[in-house]
Amino acid sequence: MWDFIKREKFFGMIIPKEFGGLGFSPFAHSEVVRKISSRSLVAAVTVMVPNSLGPGELLMRFGTEEQQQRWLPRLADGRDIPCFGLTSPEAGSDAASMIDTGIICKGTFEGREVIGLRLNWHKRYITLGPVATLLGLAFKAYDPEHLVGSQEDLGITVALIPTHLAGVSIGHRHLPAMQVFQNGPNWGRDVFIPLDYIIGGQQRLGQGWKMLMTALAAGRGISLPSLSAAGAAYAARTTGAYARIREQFNVPIGKFEGIEEPLARIAGTAYLLDAARRLTCAALNQGNHPAVISGIMKLHATERMRVAIDDAMDIHGGKAVIDGPQNYLGNLYRAVPVAITVEGANILTRNLIVFGQGAIRAHPYLLEEMNALGIPDKEKALDAFDTAFWKHVGHSAANLLRAWGRSWTGGLFAPAPSAGQATRYYRQLSRYSSAFALCADMALLTLGGALKRKEMLSARFGDILSELYLLSAALKRWEDEGRQSADLPALQWCVASGFRTIENRFAEVLANLPNRFVAIILKFVVQPLGARVVGPSDMVVHRCAQMILEPSAARNRLTPNLSQISDDGGVDRLEKAFLLVAAAEDIVRRMRSAQLRDRDAAVKQGVITRAEAEQLAAAHAAVARVIEVDDFAPEALSPIYKKSADVHQFFQELGSTRAAG
Asked: Where are the strands (E) in 74-182, listed by range?
C-alpha cells in the first residue's frame, strides 16, 4: 500500500505539476479522500494528512523558491514522508502556550559555521510521525544575543527538520482509538538547523501562527469534512439496506416509525454534509481561504457524522456490536472521537472560534473601528473612528427595521430567488439572517470584548451562523442537481431541522443576554411569539427514510461514489442481499395476501412459480449471510490463552509421567 500511495502520488495531490505533483483542485482532493474514507479510514488519514496542514501546504504558500525546488518534488513522489509537529504535552488547543524553543545562535552545520537555531521540543499525537523523514515543526523563537535584530522574543516560527539530524528522536506509536494509522511522539534535543530551514526563510521568523492559521483554513475545510461526508453517506447506504432486509414481527424494521426517525436523520445528514462539502470546495477552488467556514465545516461535519454513526449502530443492534470481518460499522464507530478531537477540538471550535472569529470578520464596520483606534495620530484616529462609527449606526438602524419587518411578517416579503418549491426556504433564510445580524450587533454593542468570554452565548450565535451556511449549501445542492422531486424530502428534513435549531438558539440567546432591556427589545422585534418551528413533520420523516429503504436513483444520488468491491465482505453481502430482497418484494406480497409462508405450498397453489420460489430462497439465504456475526475460538483471540493452555497441557503431561513413574 505504501509503495502504491507513493508511486501514484497520493501524497502530492495538492502539489503543483511543475514540482512533480498532481496539481489537483480542492474538489478533486476532496473526492479522493471521500472515496478512500468509504473503504479504509486508516488509508484515508494516511493520504489526507500530507495534503492538509503540513510541510507541503506551507511550502507552497510561504516557502522560498529554493525551498520549493528542493522539497516539493521529494514530497510529491514519496521520497520524503512529511508530518507536522504542533501539539505538545503542555499545549493542545492553546497552541500559543507551547514551550518548544528555538534559540538563535551560531553553530556548525554540514561543516560550516552559520547562524541558525538550536531547537528543543517534545511533540505528541503526530500523524505519520513514526515514519516521517521531514518534520514541519512549530516552536517559539528567541534571539537572546540579538544576532538577527533588536527583538528577543520573536514568536511562533515554523521550520523544516529532516528527521535524520542529530538530536531528533522518533518515539514509538500511539494507538488512537484502535486505529492503526501512523501516529506518535517525537523529541528534539539541541537540534541545530540553519536559518534557511525556516519555511519562507529568515523574514518569516515569528510569523508561524499566521502561516499555520492560513494553511489550516484550507486543509480543515477539506480533509475531515470529506471523511465525515463519506461516513454519513456510508451509514445511510448500509443502514437503509440493513433496515430493509432485517425483519422483526414479519415486517422490515425500516417500516417501524421508531426506526424511520433515525433513518431520516441519517439520510438528511448525508444530504446536508455532502452539500456543504461541495460548497466549501467551490469557495476553495476560487482561491478563497475562509477560516470561519472551515471551522464550521470541521465542527459540524464531524459532530453530525457522530450522530449518524450512533443512529446506524442503534438500528443495526447486535450486528454492529459483535466485532469481526463481517462487522462493517464497528471500526468507524470507534474512530469517530479522533475526528472530533483533531484540528481543533469541537468544544473549542464551537465556543470560541465560529462566532468569535466570524463576528469581526463578517461585520462591515467593526474591524474598521478597531483599526481606527490603533492609529497613532489622535486626530486622524478620531476622524477614522467617527466615519466608521456613523456608518455602523446607519447599518444597525437598517438592520433593526429589516429584521423587524421580516420577523413580524414571517418572512413573507423577504427577498428570495425563484426556486420552485424551495423559494419559501430562501425567504426564511433571509428573515433569520436579518435577525442574526441585529442580535449579533446588539450583543457586541452591549458586551464588547466580554462577549468572547461569554462562551455559551458565543456558541449559540455560532450555531445560528453555522445553520445559515449549511442550509444555504443544501439549497444550492438541490438547485445544482436539477430540483429533483425525489430528493425533496431530504431537503425538507434539513430545512425543518435547521430552522428548529435557529429558532431555539435565538430563544436561548435572548433568555441569557445580560442586558435585559436590550434582550426584551430584541425579543419584541425578532421573536415576539417565541420559538415556533418544531422540526420535521412525521410525513417528512417517513418520506426521507424511504429514500434509503429501496433501490432508486435518489438513493444513489444521496450516497454517490462510495467504494463498492465484490469481496464477499460485510458490505458486499449486504448490498447483494438488499437488491435480492427488493427484487422479491412482489413475490412476498402475493404470498402474504394468500396467507402463505411456505414457498412449496405457494407453488402448489399457483400463487408463485417455481422460479420465483427459487428467487425468494436466494434472497432468504443472502439475508441469512448478512445477519450472521463472527465468532472466534479463544486461542484465536488471545496468545495468553494459548500460553495458558500450553502450560495446562505441560502439567497434565507432567502429572501423567509422575503417575506412571
From this structure: 82-85, 101-109, 112-127, 134-142, 153-162, 168-170
Q: What is the pLDDT of residue 79?
A: 94
Dist. CA 458–CA 460, nearest whole Å: 5
**Phi and psi (nearest 5°) for 526?**
-105, -20
Cα dihedral 212, 215, 217, 218 in deg (nearest 10) = -160
- pLDDT of 210 reads 86
Q: Which residues contact 322 (CB under 8 A, 6 or more apart)?
A: 629, 630, 631
Q: Catalytic residue among 31, 260, 303, 343, which?
A: 343
Partners of 118 in the beta sheet?
A: 103, 192
Query: How far is Cα 220 from Cα 189, in angstroms, rounded to an integer?
Result: 31
CA distances from 425 to 413, 419, 468, 599 (A): 12, 9, 11, 50
Inter-CA distances, 529 with 132, 276, 525, Å: 59, 31, 10
pLDDT at position 265 = 98
- Please state, as a whole number, how many other Cβ atoms lie within 10 Å of the Cβ of residue 650: 10
Gap between the Cα atoms of 605 and 602, Å rounded = 5
Distance CA 480, CA 468 (A): 18
Q: Which residues are within 8 A (CB) of 140 and not within 5 positions of it... i.e. 6 or more apart?
A: 98, 99, 100, 101, 102, 153, 154, 155, 156, 157
Element (H, E) at 577: helix 570-583
What is the C-alpha separation between 189 and 621, in angstroms, rounded?
Answer: 62
Residue 97: the pLDDT is 81
Specify the pLDDT at position 344.
Answer: 74
Which regions of the chain are under pLDDT 70?
Answer: 93, 640-648, 650-661
Please say if 343 is a catalytic residue. Answer: yes
| Cα–Cα dist 508/521, whole Å | 15
Q: How much is the pLDDT for 655?
A: 64
